[in-house]
Amino acid sequence: MSTQFSINNLKATIEGKEILKGINLEIKGGEIHAIMGPNGTGKSTLASALMGHPKYEVTDGEVAINGEDLLEMEVDERARAGLFLAMQYPSEIAGVTNSDFLRSAINARREEGNEISLIKFIRQMESKMKELDMNPEFAHRYLNEGFSGGEKKRNEILQMMLLDPKLVILDEIDSGLDIDALKIVAAGVNAMRSEDRGFLIITHYQRLLNYITPDFVHVMMQGRIVKSGGPELAERLENEGYDWVKEELGIVDETVGQA
Ligand SMILES: Nc1ncnc2c1ncn2[C@@H]1O[C@H](COP(=O)(O)OP(=O)(O)OP(=O)(O)O)[C@@H](O)[C@H]1O
Ligand SMILES: [Mg+2]
Domain 4-91+166-249 is classified in which CATH homologous superfamily? Predict the structure, then answer.
């Protein structure tokens, strides 16, 4: 079945402050959607709220993945339903090796008694690490501990490849990547493009979208998607910034007039 992911009027608060003010978005299998927008407009909040981070309280709206109500699910159930988030700032976990973490994550998504065999897991992990040009030693290091910014991002993509998710959210996967790593990560994403997988890619720069061609580009401002278009929208934002969007839509900066 082709993936269907829909967000309807999603509102969320952090410590009582409303950050998401009614997000509407539909992603079908095979589609790549990019979200761009100024700092602090709620892009990462959207990613975290979808994944079920306990700090974010969803106050309104519906989210469905393949007909199932996502918001009713615990975080692990969301992962089992096929949701995957590559975080803007991946966490470090001392004492858990990367390979143990990956194998547990894969097995957590499988039925009991149907765990992946160690040999099969290692074979898969090694082949994906090779694809991402990662040093095999990274399998045995503690999760993200001491990884450089770019190494953490590459490691997020490794997780994505091994988990085979249905709906992938990449939050600034391009930040911290060197030019070659950007191409490798983009190739990893492109290799994962398929009819039964959708992507939501949060980015600040057109650069990433030169390598991963989005079907739709959305602009997020002040907790809402205020404009949508094709790849040409990202190009215009790169060249002209956000002022023209604000002018066109009559959006006033939130700080203005609050003094
Ligand atoms: N734990 C928190 N406590 C208080 N405010 C928070 C918290 N997390 C996020 N916010 C606020 O919510 C708003 C949206 O943050 P968010 O991280 O979603 O922005 P963003 O669009 O991802 O920005 P960037 O492009 O800089 O990554 C910001 O004003 C931020 O300060
Ligand atoms: Mg962010």
Answer: P-loop containing nucleotide triphosphate hydrolases (3.40.50.300)
